């Protein structure tokens, strides 16, 4: 007997019991035969009615309620699942949007950096074009001036030769005059050499060839030896011998000359008490290096980045053109694939030239 039927039957039985009790009080038939028949009939009827009501009416209602509850719970679970799914999808979309925003920001920063880099490069190219045009004009003027200097040097040389001839004819002997004449001949020879070097740089005709590094450095030193002695500048050097390079020896000699000339001018202008220049040549696995150091106090930090720029000079206008180090850097880094660097040493300026060895020189 199901729970529903028992409950319906119990309810009907209670109603029947109350009804019979009331009926017996009204009719005084409580213990009579007809009363028992009536009780039996009504009890059977109650059982039948309870069964029919529980099966036909209440049970379908309970089943419908149960199904509705299950459907509601299923719907509720589905809604929760959909809500969780939507939340997860929203989180994914939000993460994707944040990632896209981050990528857009990084892209914008990269584009800004590239734009800034391109602007700087364009400005550098424009400055280089301006410098090249100015250098081209200077080159044309310099060729004419060098030709005129060459004519003047030839004229002075011719005059000196005439003086020497006259001295020999009159048999004039004076040690001071003879020494002065020798110095003038040496100065004229140096001027002719420098004139030729400048012409070769402005309009190069030199071909690459092998040369001994220490010989080229000594050649540049010899050209300035007398000037250094006159200004009491002491030269110390430490050379590694037998270093052979392949390149432009005349141009390389001009670089050494320029750096030594700058060291001399700095020592004189700053009036250093004990003037010194140190030169070293050494050999590494992949390159040969020349280091030139003076004790003139170095260069101010705020202009170090500009010393290799064209037309920049720390000297007065009449003393320098501001092209010496600029030209030197071009010779070393573009013509000879080396490196020319500067730094302030403990006592003064330090220039380092590094020239790589080629296979045939190793």
From TrEMBL:
Key words, A-Z: ATP-binding, Coiled coil, Kinase, Membrane, Nucleotide-binding, Phosphoprotein, Transferase, Transmembrane, Transmembrane helix, Two-component regulatory system
Enzyme class at the top of the EC tree: transferase
TM segment ranges: 36-65
Name recorded for this polypeptide: histidine kinase
A biological process term (GO) from this entry: phosphorelay signal transduction system
Coiled-coil residue windows: 65-114
Lineage: Bacteria, Pseudomonadati, Campylobacterota, Epsilonproteobacteria, Campylobacterales
PROSITE patterns: HIS_KIN (PS50109)
MF-aspect GO terms: ATP binding; protein histidine kinase activity
Residues in Histidine kinase domain copies: 144-359
Reaction(s) the record says it catalyses: ATP + protein L-histidine = ADP + protein N-phospho-L-histidine
Catalytic activity, EC: 2.7.13.3
Matches recorded under Pfam families: HATPase_c
Superkingdom classification of source: Bacteria
